Amino acid sequence: MYSTLTSNEIQYNDIIKHIITNSLFTERQIYILYNKSSGRSPPNRISKGAYYRQLKQSEQKVSGVLYSLIILRYLNMIDKGTFQTIEVILDNTSHLIESIKRDIVSQNDSRNVISLVDEIIQKLIHQK
Question: Terminal CA-to-CA distance of the chain, rounded, Å?
Fold first, then answer.
């Protein structure tokens, strides 16, 4: 994990770690994508060659995720309601991140959120 991130950057808590673990991205790739989206130059502790190679790989994964969503929608494996549910999760995650930054989310709250997100995702996967 990249613990040199400041409090204004990615908040690596139990919820975010769980989401990253279950995503197609590694923590390093998330950090590199975040670094790029923040307009920052490559960090000193990663060679520029390695940074740009990993950035390209990460961007290819983002592209693959987007194309995958399109084909899954085309195949009716996910419907408009799924996208709406994902949007609700994203909105709630934004509110949760603000709570995390203010340090008002307990470990029990984190476990409940992780369970709820896992449950929603499983329901979305098995809805057809």
Answer: 37
Tokens encoding 75: 């195949």
Q: Is 124 helix (H, G, I), strand (E, B) or coil?
A: helix
Please, is 88 exposed, middle or buried when counting C-beta atoms within 10 Å of its C-beta (0-12, 13-18, 19+)?
Answer: exposed
**Which range marks the domain in which residue 99 is found?**
14-125
Tokens 């040199």, residue?
4
Q: Is residue 86 part of a domain?
A: yes
Q: How far is CA 12 from CA 31, 61, 97, 100, in A?
A: 10, 21, 10, 10
Residue 59 lies in a domain: yes
Q: Is residue 3 part of a domain?
A: no
Residue 54 near residue 32, CB atoms below 8 Å: yes
Q: What angle do CA 105, 36, 8 make, to 5 degrees?
A: 30
Structural domain count of the chain: 1
Note the pLDDT of residue 59: 96
Residues of the chain with pLDDT under 70: 1-12, 96-97, 99-105, 128
Q: Would you say residue 8 lies in a domain?
A: no
pTM over 0.85: no
